[in-house]
Write a structure and sequence with these properties.
The chain is α/β, with parallel strands linked by helices. It has helices at 6-14, 29-34, 39-46, 53-64, 109-119, 133-139, 155-167, 186-190, 203-206, 209-213, 221-232, 239-246, 261-270, 291-302, 317-325, 335-366, and strands at 65-67, 82-84, 87-89, 93-95, 123-125, 145-149, 173-176, 253-258, 274-277, 308-311, 330-333, 380-382. It has an eight-stranded parallel beta sheet with strand order 4-11-10-9-8-7-6-5.
Length: 384
């Protein structure tokens, strides 16, 4: 069944008076989620760094590119599949790593990974998840799972985390490299809100056996969190650490947070398996180039065969199409599915992502394309 068939399901249900319980317009999800979340939690999910200029630039970049549809091209059959690291995905979409999901739903990441399993899409678990990586894996054993790593300053703990992820069946390591320190986030600062201080985000490191071995036998919670802060913070992270990490696992390694073409080129030289063009959703550095504006130059620098994924600012299926046309192999989808999680748990995540895929499928068809490998920059025009 084509993803676009979702619209037919909705219209047929409407004959008997049934309407979707959640918005199908992705721009309305944030407002709906704001009504069910505390100001602190909503601010943590929706907020960005500084004046939020980078977050705004991410959206403005999508608006500057416009589709140039083709006609009369027989789009009855569409192929949305993509091959990544030896696996075929049904669509070029992954659920992005978002930390501390227990803030928005009691089961947190378990609900999200179950939705991903149903959809057949990869779920990327954050280092700072509310639920431990083994528990998430056990909850959805057939889901495609990747593990996002904030590389700890203690290499032994880093090795342990990567080994645990590999043993639990995670299929790739996504190393976030744009967070040597946490960015200046006024919304969180005004609310004096840091999730780890409210019991969300420490579990993967705080329960790690190597981490615990570095503590006194009867360490109290304060001592555990003090050591967690020391280990988690890693402003000295460098290319040497990435080279070292490459030797610690057989799994594919992707660097997330790449914006400069030279950094993307260096990633290829050091043995990294892919890059993710990302501004961290605008949450780290205010005033940067938009992720979408960085994408074509990075693709040109690394060539056509090196995996380049995209993250930041994606809201709609049309956005997915634009990112693919500009050189991405797949996109990571973040905030909107978290709003779905807040509104209706697993079913909310499924609804939000199904709507994204339906719009992408229909946009592909109405623009005159049958497969994602047909998409190039020729499908777009830049509008000032």
């Amino acid at each position: 069944m084509a993803y676009g068939d979702l619209t037919g399901e909705i219209y047929r249900a409407g004959v008997s008076g049934t309407r979707p319980e959640l918005p199908t317009d992705p721009t309305k999800l944030a407002a709906a989620a704001r009504n069910v979340l505390s100001a602190e939690v909503f601010g943590y999910i929706a907020g960005a760094a500084g004046t939020e200029a980078t977050a705004a630039a991410n959206r403005a970049a999508f608006e500057r590119w416009r589709l140039l549809p083709r006609i009369l091209r027989d789009v009855r059959e569409r192929d949305l599949t993509v091959d990544l690291f030896g696996h075929t995905l049904p669509a070029p979409v992954l659920l992005a790593p978002v930390g501390s999901q227990g803030l928005v739903h009691p089961a947190g990441e378990v609900e999200s990974v179950l939705a991903a399993q149903t959809l057949g899409l990869p779920f990327v678990l954050s280092t700072v998840s509310s639920v431990g990586l083994e528990e998430v894996a056990a909850a959805a054993p057939t889901a495609a799972r990747w593990f996002q790593l904030y590389v700890p300053s203690d290499r032994d703990v880093a090795t342990s985390l990567v080994g645990r992820a590999e043993a639990a069946g995670y299929g790739a390591i996504v190393v976030t490299v744009d967070t040597p320190v946490v960015g200046y986030r006024p919304t969180d600062l005004d609310n004096a809100f840091l999730p780890v201080l409210h019991g969300h985000g420490a579990v993967n490191i705080a329960d790690d056996p190597v981490f615990l071995a570095g503590l006194p036998e009867y360490a109290d919670h304060g001592a555990v969190m003090a050591r967690w802060s020391q280990v988690f913070a890693n402003p000295g992270l460098s290319w040497d650490d990435i080279g070292w990490l490459r030797g610690q696992t057989r799994l594919p390694i992707l660097l997330k947070g790449v914006l400069h073409p030279r950094d993307a080129k260096q990633a290829t030289a050091i043995g990294v398996d892919g890059v993710i063009v990302s501004t961290h959703g605008g949450r780290q550095v205010d005033g940067t180039i938009a992720a979408l504006d960085a994408l074509p130059d990075i693709r040109a620098e690394v060539g056509g065969d090196f995996p380049v994924l995209f993250d930041s600012g994606v809201r709609s299926g049309v956005d997915v199409l634009k990112a693919l046309a500009l050189g991405a192999d797949a996109v990571l989808y973040g905030r909107p599915y978290i709003y779905g999680l807040a509104l209706a748990g697993r079913q909310g995540v499924e609804h939000v992502v199904r709507c994204l895929l339906a719009e992408f499928d229909l946009a592909l068809a109405t623009a005159g394309y049958r497969a994602i490998d047909e998409l190039t920059e020729e499908a777009l025009r830049h509008s000032i």
